[in-house]
Specification:
Elements (H helix, E strand, L loop, with lengths): L1 H40 L15 E5 L4 H12 L3 E6 L2 H15 L3 E5 L8 H8 L4 E6 L19 H27 L2 E6 L12 H20 L5 E6 L21 H10 L6 E2 L3 H12 L2 H24 L2
Parallel strand pairs: 1-2, 1-4, 2-3, 4-5, 5-6, 6-7
Helix pairs in contact: 2-7, 4-5, 5-6
GO cellular component, one term: endoplasmic reticulum
Family: Belongs to the short-chain dehydrogenases/reductases (SDR) family.
Pfam family, one: adh_short
Length: 316
């Protein structure tokens, strides 16, 4: 009797094991299929969104460098007129001229300091009559180097961080969304960060701000799932830019143009993306790395930055 019970139990456990293996294999296969289709086949298969059909204009914030500049140029290359919004008028004017000459589209420049709260009425009055199909909320700021929160020296750091990374996303979306809803089409692309997908100590406020962008975008995706308006969260790792302070491209650190080409191919395919295939691989790796390893890396970066700053002061 007992032997029969053991035999029966063994059969049950074997069945559970086989089922578990099958489920895991299915999930891995599905994940690989989604990875390949999003990053390598979306353009060839015609899965990517036709952004030009959504409206004649695109708005890009923080557009004079890095990822923002690449979005503005690549959207212009698709024949979409561009509203360029950033802080420095001279840089905006120069970029507008380059974009118009190279891509034969119209541009509008709006000089706005997103670290301030009183800029949005002016932005609204300038764009409210435009047929805006795409909004790229790219403007933002990070830490100069990993830092303990209580040791941040700039008294305006917290307010600037919140305005640039959170207020800008919420307010710009509020400006363009009503008209997108009226015509039942549009794309809001919010640039988050890999630091927003999990708590990142020593970049604490930046991580929290990008977590806001993550939650805000995902909630809007559900809230307006039947509206015709699409929201996308883009969470990059490092690219070559002034913000990252990395000047040399590699497989895991692409140029902004390479990164944005990959990210734009995922619009209409993924509502949440790392944007580029190697950044998705990095995201998988990060998910299995112990937090202690990440903390040690950040502290090491902090030590190097502080030494560099001390050496620079000594040499003055």
């Amino acid at each position: 009797m007992f032997q029969e019970y053991l035999a029966g139990s063994a059969d049950v456990f074997s069945a559970i094991g086989a089922l578990t293996t099958g489920v895991v294999a299915f999930k891995v296969t599905l994940g690989l299929f989604r990875f390949i289709s999003a990053h390598f086949l979306s353009g060839a298969l015609g899965l990517s969104a036709n952004l030009r059909k959504a409206g004649a204009w695109a708005v890009v914030t923080g557009c004079t460098d890095g990822i923002g500049k690449a979005y503005a140029e690549q959207l212009a290359a698709r024949g979409i007129n561009i509203v360029l919004i950033s802080r420095t008028l001279s840089k905006l004017t120069e970029m507008a001229k380059e974009v118009e000459e190279k891509y034969k589209v119209k541009t509008m420049v709006i000089a706005a300091d997103f670290s301030q709260a009183d800029i949005y009425d002016n932005i609204r009055s300038n764009v409210e009559n435009l047929d805006i199909g795409v909004l790229v909320n790219n403007v933002g700021m990070s830490y100069d180097y990993p830092e303990y929160y209580a040791e941040i020296e700039d008294p305006n750091f917290v307010s600037k961080m919140l305005h640039l990374n959170c207020t800008s996303v919420a307010k710009m979306t509020q400006i363009v969304l009503p008209n997108m809803l009226k015509k039942r089409q549009g794309y809001v692309i919010n640039i988050g960060s890999s630091a927003g997908s999990a708590p990142t100590p020593f970049l604490t406020l930046y991580s929290a701000c990008k977590s806001f962008v993550d939650t805000f975008t995902r909630a809007l995706t559900i809230e307006y799932s039947r509206s015709g308006v699409n929201f996308q969260l883009v969470s990059p790792y490092f690219v070559v830019s002034k913000l990252s302070k990395i000047r040399k491209a590699s497989v895991f650190v692409p140029t902004p143009n390479t990164y944005v080409k990959g990210a734009l191919a995922t619009v209409g395919v993924q509502s949440s993306t790392n944007g580029f295939w190697s950044h998705t691989v990095q995201d998988w790796i990060r998910s299995v790395i112990p937090m202690s390893v990440i903390v040690n890396g950040l502290l090491d970066n902090r030590r190097r930055a502080l030494k560099k700053r001390a050496d620079a002061k000594q040499n003055q």
